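Quick start: read one record
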Amino acid sequence: MNNKDGKPVTQTDKGRIVPMAVIFVVLCGCSFYMGIIFCSEKGSFESIYSQKSVESSKESSTSSLQIKYISFPECSADYQDYTPCTDPRRWRKFGSYRLTLLERHCPPKFERKECLVPPPDGYKPPIRWPKSRDECWYRNVPYDWINKQKSNQHWLKKEGEKFIFPGGGTMFPNGVGKYVDLMQDLIPEMKDGTIRTAIDTGCGVASWGGDLLDRGILTLSLAPRDNHEAQVQFALERGIPAILGVISTQRLPFPSNSFDMAHCSRCLIPWTEFGGVYLLEIHRILRPGGFWVLSGPPINYERRWRGWNTTVEAQRSDYEKLRELLTSLCFKMYKKKGDIAVWQKSPDNNCYNKLPRDTYPPKCDDSLEPDSAWYTPLRDCMVVPDPKFKKSGLSSISKWPERLHVTPERISMVYHGSDSTFKHDDSEWKKKVAYYKKLIPDLGTDKIRNVMDMNTLYGGFAAALIDDPVWVMNVVSSYASNSLPVVFDRGLIGTIHDWCEAFSTYPRTYDLLHLDGLFTAESHRCEMKNVLLEMDRILRPWGHAIFRESSYFTNAIETLGKGMRWECRKENTETGSDTQKVLVCQKKLWYSSNQGSR
């Protein structure tokens, strides 16, 4: 046989081809095998890596990380409401399709602001809870636009130096209290501890979530960053849990089967468009047996359509599309009265098992992790709850407040998670928090309201504060083992986040930030300076930060803290550990020098 040049192919050339093919097949097989091992042992590798990081830090505790003192400059006064990853100054770089410009778009490293965000001129310490639910200082959130546009709907009104929150809303002009009373009549589970966690999409100034706090329901209010309304900033200034976010092209930063109830009051989300992906996301984060409450278009369209600048035919069509989509997702109409309609997600998998193979939206395949929620694209498929978790549905999980201390079924998903480790963690945090209260006497009083645990495991820190006038945002690192399902199953709230980036909130929104070994776990990825500057941005003046950290890092944290005008003091842990210290810092109030005051 001849080759293309007309020369005969020698036996040596032919013999060379066979070994090369064999080697190629062997290499492919090895790569596939190693990939399986890596994926199946990912949690183990993460834990081992983290453990080695801790051990290496302990071994180095006789020395300490030294950082040169830096006096950080002030940002200009127009950065007083700066939100780095949802910055309106950068919107023009992103498209308006499906409002993708409102999603997280963090600046590249060379565009990061390494300066201190100033408060507005005339800023005062926030009004204390629970009075803050009804009023806040105008100078702390000086937005006139929302006052002019929404005062007729009784969202808020300006009186002298304060904003007053009458508790009104577009769909509850008679007050949020009466609106929730009607909702409780429709959903008795809101009264007996069955429903504990809720999410409010398009929350306004979070009056719905604020009212539910007195009824034992912890609501996370969600709204996008905007130029005028500052809905999330108003919510947090009032002491009501809230986070910046929008349902657009990416999943919300929560695991599957998290919330007991979801609510939309004229939030104007196009639920049936784009293959129903927005409603599919609500379906994903709602617990089996959980409730979805909708008021506003197209509910009660027969009476309301004239006020919606539309036609009765268009609203009837929208309602039928919505009902059809909900049915295909195994939701059932629970109750409906007036402007409020309530659907319930299937409490088990029987409905999903009966769906035909060609159903639309289809079921998601196994390649899509149900709990993946950090920059995970939305897909037009349905996440079916894992049938092996039979005690995580709303009808099976313990009622509040008992569920706070019951070991969640989904702890088996966490590396080394078990009933004993959960109980031990719960017990240890009670001791640690009691010690923190000695170090910071304000903790447990009305001087501290908004709290964040920056790298929680099971939510033990938040559980230990449950009887105090605080709420806690529990943050689980996007690079750690995902224990956030356990946090939600306890009846607490939280989010996934990567601390190499800015958090989804406004400046000056938290009274206390707590971290436990964050730099030990993440210093190989995230620069300490950037994490501390972000903490300064979201911490209120006179707010505190507690660092439970390896002795190796505490001196460096203290040095950088001084450069941010913090006052820090180093304390022993409650056990007197030599390898770990507690650093307590407090942010001071200062005003921008550009405004002529200090």
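The CA atoms of residues 517 and 549 lie 5 Å apart.
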